[in-house]
């Protein structure tokens, strides 16, 4: 294949990928915008609460769709991240460690050991998106893991009041304890270390955009609910 032909082919592929990226960015924004309106009004809220697990799966599916370079290390990250995230929640619900005393409502769907399976997916989404932001900006794995974990803890500060209002989960005495945020930081850091240390391709063109919409969704609902 000649150089001009190869360059033309690469340009065409780049245009297709850019168009696809723009399309999925629009889909993400529309879903989150509709979700804000649906959750904001008491009349429609119960229906949108039922859709929450499917929305999480959609987010995860879009992230995986834009992933490049699948290998065994990435599959290990998904498995380890899910087990640690989900396992910490099972431990938390049944013992109060490491987050505090809380329990899950029905809004997040099917539960195993009194914890919705979607919570494990939620951990993966947040770890993957925050880790991706720093993947090529910070060389030190431990520093990058710590900063990404801090970012996740800050996001949880935004999520918590809304999650309680929407019956995702409830806290004993209706008080979100400091232990929750410390626990989040610790568990997030542990999973982030695996994200950094496992050898897989870290690029994902849409992860930052999805994370931005997720944060904006909960930030706006904090002002409304």
UniProtKB/TrEMBL annotation:
Signal peptide stretch: none
The keyword Chloroplast is assigned to this record: no
Protein name per Swiss-Prot or TrEMBL: Carotenoid biosynthesis protein
Organism name: Arthrospiribacter ruber
Pfam families, per database record: Caroten_synth (PF04240)
Matches recorded under PANTHER family: SLL0814 PROTEIN (PTHR39419:SF1)
Keywords for this protein: Membrane, Transmembrane, Transmembrane helix
UniProt superkingdom: Bacteria
Membrane-spanning parts: 21-41, 47-66, 73-97, 117-135, 142-163, 175-194, 206-224
């Amino acid at each position: 294949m000649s150089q001009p032909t190869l360059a033309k082919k690469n340009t065409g592929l780049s245009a297709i990928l850019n168009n696809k990226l723009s399309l999925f960015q629009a889909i993400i924004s529309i879903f989150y915008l509709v979700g804000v309106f649906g959750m904001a009004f008491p009349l429609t809220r119960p229906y949108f609460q039922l859709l929450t697990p499917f929305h999480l799966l959609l987010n995860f599916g879009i992230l995986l769709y834009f992933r490049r370079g699948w290998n065994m290390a990435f599959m290990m990250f998904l498995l380890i991240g899910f087990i640690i995230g989900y396992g910490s929640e099972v431990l938390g619900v049944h013992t109060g460690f490491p987050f505090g005393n809380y329990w899950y409502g029905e809004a997040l769907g099917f539960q195993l050991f009194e914890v919705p399976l979607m919570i494990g997916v939620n951990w993966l989404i947040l770890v993957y998106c925050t880790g991706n932001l720093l993947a090529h900006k910070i060389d030190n794995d431990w520093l990058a893991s710590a900063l990404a974990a801090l970012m996740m803890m800050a996001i949880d500060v935004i999520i918590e009041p809304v999650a309680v209002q929407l019956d995702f989960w409830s806290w004993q005495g209706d008080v979100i304890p400091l232990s929750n945020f410390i626990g989040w930081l610790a568990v997030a850091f542990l999973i982030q270390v695996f994200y950094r240390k496992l050898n897989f391709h870290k690029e994902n063109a849409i992860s930052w955009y999805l994370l931005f919409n997720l944060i904006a969704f909960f930030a706006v609902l904090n002002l409304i609910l």
